[in-house]
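Technical note accompanying the year-one report. For the benefit of new consortium partners, we illustrate the data format agreed upon in the data management plan: each record pairs a sequence with a structure-token string. No post-processing was applied to the example shown here.
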Amino acid sequence: MDCTLVRTLVHRYCAGEEDCVDSRTVYVGHREPPPGAEAYIPHRCPDNRIVSSKYTFWNFIPKNLFEQFRRIANFYFLIIFLVQLIIDTPTSPVTSGLPLFFVITVTAIKQGYEDWLRHKADSAVNQCPVHFVQHGRLVRKQSRKLRVGDIVMVKEDETFPCDLIFLSSSRADGTCHVTTASLDGESSHKTHYAVQDTKGFHTEEDIDSLHATIECERPQPDLYKFVGRINVYSDLNDPVVRPLGSENLLLRGAALKNTEKIFGVAVYTGMETKMALNYQSKSQKRSAVEKSMNVFLIVYLCILISKALINTVMKYVWQSEPFRDEPWYNQKTEAERQRNLLLRAFTDFLAFMVLFNYIIPVSMYVTVEMQKFLGSYFITWDEEMFDEETGEGPLVNTSDLNEELGQVEYVFTDKTGTLTENNMEFKECCVEGHVYVPHAVCNGQVLPAAAAIDMIDTSPGAGGREREELFFRAVCLCHTVQVKDDAEVDGPRKSPDSGKRCAYISSSPDEVALVEGIQRLGFTYLRLKENYMELRNRDNDIERFELLEILSFDSVRRRMSVIVKSATGEIYLFCKGADSSIFPRVVEGKVDQIRSRVERNAVEGLRTLCVAYKRLMQEEYEGIYKLLQAARVALHDRERKLAEAYEQIEKDLILLGATAVEDRLQEKAADTIEALQKAGIKVWVLTGDKMETAAAACYACRLFRRNTQLLEVTTKRLEEQSLHDVLCELSKTVLHRSASLTRDSFSGLSADMQDYGLIIDGAALSLIMKPCEDGSSSHYRELFLDICRNCSAVLCCRMAPLQKAQIVKLIKFSKEHPITLAIGDGANDVSMILEAHVGIGIIGKEGRQAARNSDYAIPKFKHLKKMLLVHGHFYYIRISELVQYFFYKNVCFIFPQFLYQFFCGFSQQTLYDTAYLTLYNISFTSLPILLHSLTEQHVSMDTLKRDPALYRDIAKNALLRWRVFIYWTFLGVFDALVFFFGAYFMFENTTVTSNGQVFGNWTFGTLVFTVMVFTVTLKLALDTHYWTWINHFVIWGSLLFYVIFSLLWGGIIWPFLSYQRMYYVFIRMLSSGPAWLAIVLLVAVSLLPDVLKKVLCRQLWPSATERVQTACLVSRPPLGSHPLASL
């Protein structure tokens, strides 16, 4: 036994890296192998707990605070608050500390609650009861206690608690049906097969007596791939070795259907399951507007520091003369004279920082959060985005990304269930040039189902009749369709022998459509029973074929085959697949006629398949069996060996015909894609479907057009050329063509820009994404990106969920850093939804995982048009104006304070009263811009829907570029200069009241503040295009509130104030005629440059939006004609 242990260890750790790293041994039921077999060396594997939460009880406070203070604004206000605590400053620490504490606390509570919900969901999953088999009986335990090697029983409609190898089921044939809607988005039933030597174990006692080990690969995220083998031990004989593939693996998250119960052994648990490996943790997304805000904030911080530095230097220059440093009325104490000069200078610098810190008010961030939160309701209230059929409306899971909807440059969409309804319909079949259409119209009458055959061409002869029936038999037999045992879900039980239609289930909806279509043409597939396939022919006779082999479909071969034996002993190989895969292997048949029909159907957007066959002699089949068996039991390179075997078998075929199936597009899917392309948005389709199917759908939805030249980077092509040669060839083709086009970057709608469409599959993408040996990114990525940039549309087929996320990430982090949006309906789309800047889930039939993990959810793909072109457009316009306006009005607010220091000896004296300092951003100017940012419509919704090209006007963050930001900043500086020096020069050395008194410093500051409040509010009124009664109420009401507040604040002696320096100041100012004149003149002068700029730009260099506004002025709807809820 010791020698066996040593031998096993040497073999495992010295036989090679591949054996060591890529495989694990699972002991079924934790039973040791018999003496003389492999030594029992258990592996350390994780338990079955799933963790999706972000925080724990111990790390919540430090981790959350760290994340919140990563936001520059929060960190800035923290520093200001600490400075106010440490030194004597002109303003109280409460003015900075209280708002900051409120924002941090509310955000922490919100994020803590969301994570508590995730903990709760994890706990519910981990504590779900699971039935284990122990000592010959069922034991009920919590799911988190499940370990690798445990034998589990799962009942009908239950989900699998971990990844299981299928051992046996309640069905006699050892099969079970599974739905994987929560994994890959497919609601169709998939058939899985139990291990041949264990499928007879139907009781707990039988399954507990099983003595076996499983060798399989390490956990991998690929849902469609599994390689392993099982060694079944008996008392006397050597172990029986059976291959294990994806058809034997039941994945966590999938649900058992139409099967009473199954037994399986756990091979991957917890965070090692394929579902968990495909789950990408949800990181906090930040919009481009928020990033721009942070950059602008840094600029204003630099301005703030510059102001404080200038004032500090000027203060000590001013005080360099003794009588200014220590005037007779303000003698210094001895302690003040002894203080270090640098320390005093630093303290003064910090005091100036606090004095000017209002240039970046915390109220801006609060207003932005409120605008996003309240604005998100306009999506949920939109009645046009409500789907009557499903009773679902749009959902907003996060309001942080509203404006990002107006900046999308790339849309990545799933196909099945997103663009299409995933509802296949058999349209026709072509047998040797003769076309058969179910339910065809003949002489104005619809033929009944029993005789629904329309010979469009001439009727076939006797030999043709035989080929025709052979074709129908081939379609009836070459598939993996199962017949429902219990059809009560669809009505009363239907017997397969009753002459009525059977209820079929399959992993592929088009296989079901083919079998149902052939049924309407007279051949009915009945069942697979004890390895015999039964069908009923036109004469109502039952035909039985023994199923010998299934050569499964894969994305490289793009075909599948079955080998069957008829009742007369003849052995047939029936093969169906894509035309490009079948035609090269055909040696006989009417290829030209069938090819022309296939091409015609493909142009119409139908999914086409070709069908071929060949007869096999008994000796040929025996050779095929040995070849297949040798490849299937291989643990390493199994896929390559099987592919080589299939290649040898599927050749010298005789072509029978072709089929055409339609996967109906969702309503207005093509119109939506066309509108998005007109808006300058590139649309990519990422799907797990095969290339031909996906390409047909892309033609149907007008992603590809008839003049589109398709470029392929597929596994098939890479077998003939190296990846480098393929990419270089395509790059030369695309770049040469693009160089010959006119250099108009905005002519994205020209016919020339529709020339190229790229198709790439998952295997080719893996090679492109594969890092170099030194760990750097592959140089193929840049070549691939260059090709993609010059293609009007891209189709990525045979994509695993993580590959979809890789594609999104590749574009997201390319040198242009475009804004990406991903949309899908299934759990297989969750990774790309989380990776994209904006993730949208379709509330469809494939479960709600995509909708739950998305930022927004909509009922149908067609609603994406309004969400981006209308809501996204409005959101971006509104938030951009809010941000720029806030910075503008705070430059107007603080720059006069900076100028005032030159007239008060840099003594840190405030120009405005404390009440005005506090309420300027909170009360006097915040509500008008908040309402403006919720209701503004620079053009009507109908115009935005009618003219998608207007979306281009706001592309690439157009309204928050440096040019626009600098204009707003300089406009604020100009207005501040007008406020301050206009008031200063108008009243310098003059008596302005009836009794000869002159204005004091508080009256001067109040005058400047009054002009400022009126100017910034009227500036907003000038920028408003869409007036409602709410706008009027808020804008004029805020001005009225300022006047009333000032009158009350200075007209009443307030008992809670220790001193009242503003008493009677405002009233005295308004009693002066020159003050009224100053207010009117200075407001007019301040607004004049902006008005002139708007008029000149609109007349000389109008944008597309401004041209539309001008055209709509005559027919503008009356005031308040649009209900607020329609925004």
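Partners are asked to follow this layout when depositing records. The domain at 130-278 is CATH 2.70.150.10 (Calcium-transporting ATPase, cytoplasmic transduction domain A).
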